[in-house]
Amino acid sequence: MRLRAKILLMIMSTVTIIVVSMISLIAMETRTKAIAESENLAMSIAAEKAAQAEKTLNNSLNISKTVAQTFEGMKKANIVSRDAYNAVLQDVLKQNSQILSIYTVWEPNQLDGRDREYAGKAAHDQTGRFIPYWTRQGGHIAVEACTGYANEKDGPDFFIPKHTGKEVLLDPYVYSIAGKDTLITTVSVPIILDGKFLGIVGIDMSLESLQQQNKAVKIYETGFGAILSHNGTYVAHPKQELVGKNVRDRKDVKNLPLIISAIEQGRVYEEFDKEANIFRTILPIKTGQEENSWSYVINVPTDEVLADSNEMLYTIVVVGAVGLLILTLVIIWIIRSLTRPIEQAVQHGEKLAAGDFQTDVPKELVQRPDEIGDMARVFDHITLSMRGIITEIKQGADAVSQSAGQMYVVAEETTQASQQIAESIQQVASGAEVQTRASSENSHAMQEMTVGVQRVADASSMIASTSVEMSEQARSGHESVVQAVKQMNSIKSGAHHTYAVMAELQKDSMKIGEILQLIARISSQTNLLSLNAAIEAARAGEAGKGFAVVAGEIRKLADQTASSAEQIQRLIEAIQERTEEAVHATGAGITETEQGMQTVQEVGRIFDHIQASIESVSLQMQEMSAVAQEMSAGSEQIMASVEEMAHIATTSCDMSQNIASASEEQFASMEDITETAEALNRLAGELNSCIGKFAV
């Protein structure tokens, strides 16, 4: 996988995981807070409405208690006028419009002991028992006798206080008022004097006010509240048709047994109905000493509570996706701006590795002020240095190749001349022998010998001159090789300098890695400090909100700094890998340079050998030329004196044998020179082939 793809994959996978984790965390936190908010809302509304209903019921209960205590005081003061008691009841009914009716039921003969006197009169039964019932009828107040107190089934408002000595709040029931069925309830308080039960004071009140109060409850769009009596009767509900019905008859309520149990026991109950998306809270409504309390029920729609959080979550997801897309494009641009010059440097390095030194490093890379620019300038220095060195080596190799070719041609010509000299010497030797055997042929043989000796002299002079030229060319080749050795030393020095620079660059990148680690530790510490600051701001409440925002921003900056440090650390690690590869490549270049130096030094040694051989041949050629001159003088003497022909013939025979021997040695030397020239020519060709791999 390419470096660009690796960096993009690592960064985007990390960023995506972080963004998804943050969105998930925000979603969870938002949902949790929304549910907690719905719970708090349900509890607060339930507590408020339960207190309001409790106040309404306790108001009637307190009125009943006040009247009962008034009657107890009147009885204790021996005020037993029944008109006085009726006056109190009538006055209380007039002053409290929320009361439908007020009444009292006394035990037989417990008020004044005169029940017989009032038998059959208004507000009395047939026994004269005091049971007035004051009520509103047609816009005025009227009194009549109470009913439904003869047995416990029909008169729980009388018998329960009688048996328990405590007030009672009856379950709601439907009562016809002015021809309209009205849901009412009764509050009954016992009249007890000196521990003796005398009777009760009761108040009938309409529950319409509780229904109107409950209708004002608005919880989002579909949330609602309801009041349930002790036996589960709906006292108030947004649906009017349910008022007066019992919750036990409903089939659409989940966990109905648990709800009924909580209402009957008068305890707090909370539940979350996931199917209906409702959070339900039930709070008891306490009234005085009454144990059978009513309950207030709040249903909060969690889907509506979560609507804002869901909308915010959707916004966060959209913003996160857009931000992730923008971040991806920015990261791609950054990675491209970083990897593009690296790729260009790698491409240039590949050309250098392939021996192409014609292309210059792009100027935009050389002009960069960062580490990539340093690397590009090193490559540029290597390119220029190697280009000059290779050019000089190539020129030297061409000169060596030309000199070797010339020397090979001269060696071939010298070999042919030597062969001709050898043949001529053989002829001279044969002529001397013939001259010894036949004096008559001496003149003709001496003429031939004179011609041969002259040719030997000419050839010897030419060989001597050629040998001098070859010696000078060999010396020039040796100087070129020395210059090549110097250039190779310069290449080696430059390569060592490059290796040192790359090593320093590698150390600097390691230092940068340490600095980035320090930055990461500082970022982590800053994150912890911002978290502590956020905790302290949360403790400070409203006063710490601003500081909490600052702490959050610091924490974000710390996270971004840590993320950026990780990205830079990965880039530095990639640069370190490339730098290490460059160090290895430079080391390999040094090795190749040293091998080239060994090759050039070997060429120098060969040139030394060639120069020595040529100088030896030159000396031999000079000696042979001198011998040829002596032979020419001898032949003239032979021509001048026939009498000494025999002696000269003998001398010529001996000299011919010596010359033949020298010619053979010269021929062997020339063969060696030819072989050396061929070897030098091959070496020059190999050097040209090696240099030809480099393009400058």
Q: Can you walk through the features of this model?
A:
- The protein is of the alpha+beta class and 696 residues long.
- 69% of the residues lie in helices and 12% in strands.
- The strands form two sheets. Strands 1, 2, 3, 4, 5, 6 and 7 form a seven-stranded antiparallel beta sheet that branches. A five-stranded antiparallel beta sheet has the order 9-8-12-11-10, with helices on both faces.
- Strand 2 and strand 3 form a beta hairpin.
- Helix 6 packs parallel to helix 8.
- The radius of gyration is 65 Å and the shape is rod-shaped.
- The relative contact order is 0.08.
- The mean pLDDT is 76.
Largest sheet: 7 strands, antiparallel
Which whole number gives the mean pLDDT?
76
Class from secondary-structure proportions:
alpha+beta
**How much β-strand is present in the residues?**
5-15%
Rg computed from alpha carbons, rounded to a whole number of angstroms: 65 Å
Please count the beta strands (DSSP E, at least 2 residues each). Answer: 12
Helix content: 55-70%
Quickly count the helices.
11
Features:
696 residues; alpha+beta; 7-stranded antiparallel β-sheet; 11 helices; 5-stranded antiparallel β-sheet
Write the layout of secondary structure elements.
Elements: H1 3-76, H2 82-95, E1 99-106, E2 132-137, E3 140-145, H3 156-164, E4 168-169, E5 173-177, E6 180-193, E7 196-206, H4 208-215, E8 224-228, E9 234-236, H5 256-265, E10 269-273, E11 278-285, E12 294-301, H6 302-353, H7 363-366, H8 371-437, H9 442-540, H10 545-640, H11 645-692
Antiparallel strand pairs: 1-2, 1-7, 2-3, 4-6, 5-6, 6-7, 8-9, 8-12, 10-11, 11-12
